[in-house]
Design brief:
It is a single chain. It is built from ten helices and 36 strands. The radius of gyration is 30 Å and the shape is globular. The longest helix is centred in the first third of the chain and has 22 residues. The strands form eight sheets. An eight-stranded mixed beta sheet has the order 5-4-8-2-1-10-13-12. The chain has an eight-stranded mixed beta sheet with strand order 25-26-24-23-30-34-33-32. A five-stranded antiparallel beta sheet has the order 20-19-18-21-22, with helices on one face.
Length: 663
């Protein structure tokens, strides 16, 4: 009966959702929220939603200004705030290419306005966003961010925002995303393209949109004194309804990458009386564009720290890896990372003078230093994991977000980045461990490389402990960490308030008392960190029984995958391996009552594996755990196994072994 009731409940929920979607029609009139929108308290298809996009309309058209084609983007959006967390919708941001207003190379934001609508004592109250609530921020040398705050937003508010962007980059149309972090009730994308422009149009995602493509007549203003330009064109219209939210999820870097979107790539411009232009480019074209740019290829040249390298005797270091890291240490002593990731670099003189720079600015100085020391070194461009996948079939600089340094060591490339404060060669931050990075060179063919298996988090721990009849466990714990695990510990130690706070927070995490602790190689850059602790931990004891969990350390503190089903993949931060061996001397006169069954579990391809086992020999209890993750990306079809794997490992690590007094 329980199963039948559950099935009937699911059917009723689906019917209610369908009925709700059919009765609440999208309101396409701006400035006039309906009574239903104002009184709405929940969104039936997603009762947990903190807000919902009621209506979003994006219109893109071509125009001619001063004899040049322009793109004009008009965006209107209406959002309903349903919960306290949804009030963040009042804070918005629009990013566009500012570029110092260089002629033909910029975008301008106009007609930005927003209003909040509230029901107060049954009456509609409209609050307008004033100019002092709008602020501009230069993110990079070419990008500007305009931030705004809509006033008087509370639970129940309906927000309306609209703006226009005029762009000189008529040959490039940004991807249009139908989904957002909150559910979308209605969204549309209208594009009208003159006959002179030939686009490849690609729709991707799990929720196909309503689509209409038709021929149309167009009238363009050809410029002052030049009259009107009559032509035909193509009108594209995409509509999405009741699209689910793309919420942040654990073990997933960019949910947006898996959402519904429309991509438009210009293939050719063919204007009568002019030479045709073909825009379909490949990555070789992108390489050339980067190398011709003064702030990318133009940054490759002289070593600004040549004298300092000579004074430090770096040329005399025979080991290549140690020589590379000595160069990096010297550079990091002169320049600190400003916590910005960029693709382009500032002038080296400016960076050294200010003693601060973005990762790219540091990277280009490093490349020049490495080349001066006899290494082959190049920039490797990529799109960081938090920005989503790099679309290799869509070759454009706008797909790239930053770069790292590729340096030849022997016959292979190793990698380093200016943001690294606590790691080593080939130990990059996890969001830079992408499946595709492109090593760009002016003199040699560029090449694609994968970085997902570059940095491993490796931990090896040994616990030697003695158990007292009252349940008190005293243990000496030695742990060696390398790769990203060592970098993480250095970061935690470096950013802790003080060493005492670092120790107390670790004790709280391990649920034990740390009597003493020493760290080795935990300052600055290095391959490995060693931690030695003496800890005490009170185990449960009752009568002649002691209940012992032998691990002391936490191998897996929780299973981050809690959803029963998931349509999105799982991305681990990096490949990892953890080995923990525990040897516990139990009290004289006590015996192990029963041992848990060994656990041996692994995926079909062997990329996930775990072995947990315990054995008793006299008054010695030995336990070991070996956990291995040797790939970072698991498809949605693998979700159930990954979840059950982590469930089983976590469950077995909580096992308690009963130690009892011998009769």
């Amino acid at each position: 009966m329980k199963t039948i009731r559950l099935t009937l409940s699911c059917i009723m929920l689906c019917l209610m959702t369908m009925a709700w979607a059919q009765t609440l029609e999208p309101n396409l009139k701006w400035g006039k929220p309906t009574e239903a929108e104002l009184s709405m308290t929940t969104y039936a298809p997603d009762p947990e939603a903190e807000a919902v996009v009621l209506c979003s309309q994006t219109d893109l058209r071509y125009d001619i200004t001063s004899g040049a084609f322009k793109l004009k983007l008009s965006t209107k959006k209406r959002i309903k705030v349903l919960k306290e967390e949804g009030k963040s919708a009042a804070n918005g941001g629009i990013t566009y290419i500012y570029n110092g207003h260089r002629l033909g190379q910029c975008e301008s934001l106009t007609k930005l306005k927003a209003n909040a609508y509230n029901l107060v004592d049954g009456k509609l109250v409209k609050t307008k966003m004033e100019g002092d609530m709008i602020h501009h921020e230069d993110v990079t040398k070419t990008m500007r961010l305009t931030k705004f705050t809509v006033p008087q937003v509370t639970v129940g508010t309906v927000i309306e925002v609209e703006y226009e962007i005029e762009s000189d980059f008529f040959s490039h149309i940004d991807d249009w995303w139908a989904q957002s972090e909150v559910p979308v009730m209605y969204t549309s994308f209208d594009v009208t393209v003159p006959e002179y422009f030939n686009f490849n149009v690609d729709e991707r995602g799990p929720y196909p949109l309503e689509k209409k493509i038709e021929e149309t007549n167009m009238t363009l203003a050809a410029g002052t004194g030049q009259g009107l330009l009559q032509c035909t064109g193509k009108h594209y219209r995409f509509v999405g309804r009741n699209l689910p939210a793309l919420r942040p999820k654990k073990l997933l870097y960019a949910p947006k990458s898996y959402g519904q979107r429309v991509s438009m790539e210009l293939r050719a411009i063919q204007i009568p009386g002019r030479m045709s232009q073909y825009f379909t480019s490949d990555w070789n074209d992108v390489d050339k564009q980067l190398m011709d740019d003064n702030e990318f290829g133009g940054r490759l040249g002289k070593n600004p720290l040549k004298a300092e390298m000579q004074e430090a005797g770096i040329a005399g270091i025979s080991d290549p890896t140690e020589r590379i890291m000595a160069i990096y240490r010297l550079l990091k002593d002169r320049v600190k990372w400003n916590e910005e990731y960029t693709l382009y670099a500032d002038d080296a003189g400016k960076v050294l003078k200010e003693r601060s720079g973005s990762n790219a600015s540091i990277n280009f100085i490093l490349i020049n230093m490495l080349r001066d020391a006899g290494f082959e070194a190049y920039p490797a461009v990529l799109r960081s994991r938090d920005k989503g996948f790099l679309t290799v079939t869509h070759a454009t600089v706008k797909e790239l977000s930053t770069c790292v340094v590729a340096v030849k060591v022997g016959d292979t490339f190793s990698f380093l980045d200016g943001s690294v404060e606590d790691g080593w060669l080939n130990v990059l931050p996890d969001h830079l461990l992408v499946d595709r990075a492109r090593i760009v060179s002016k003199d040699k063919p560029s090449q694609w490389v994968g970085l997902t298996e570059l940095s491993e988090a490796k931990t090896r721990s040994m616990v030697k402990a003695s158990l007292q009849p009252d349940g008190m466990l005293q243990a000496d714990v030695q742990t060696k960490m390398s790769g990203l695990e060592a970098a993480h510990l250095r970061h935690e130690f470096r950013t802790a308030t003080d060493s005492a706070t670092f120790v107390s927070e670790l004790a709280q995490e391990l649920n034990c008392e740390i009597e003493s602790m020493t760290l080795s190689h935990h300052h600055g850059l290095g391959q490995e960190v060693e931690r030695v602790m003496h800890v005490t931990k009170q185990c449960d004891a009752a009568g002649d029984m002691i209940y012992l969990n032998p691990w002391v350390l936490t191998v897996l503190s929780e299973n981050p995958l809690t959803e029963e089903e998931r349509t999105l993949p799982v991305e681990f931060p990096c490949i990892s391996s953890e080995s923990l061996t525990s040897v516990v001397e139990i009290p004289e006169g006590y015996v192990v009552e029963e041992l848990p069954q060994p656990l041996i579990i692994k995926s079909e391809d062997g990329t996930l594996s775990c072995v947990i086992a315990s054995a008793a020999n006299g008054n010695t209890l030995s336990s070991r755990c070996q956990l291995q993750v040797s790939k970072i990306f698991f498809a949605p079809s693998e979700y159930q196994f990954v979840k059950s794997f982590l469930d089983e490992v976590y469950k077995r690590l909580q096992d308690v072994i009963v130690i009892k007094k011998a009769s």
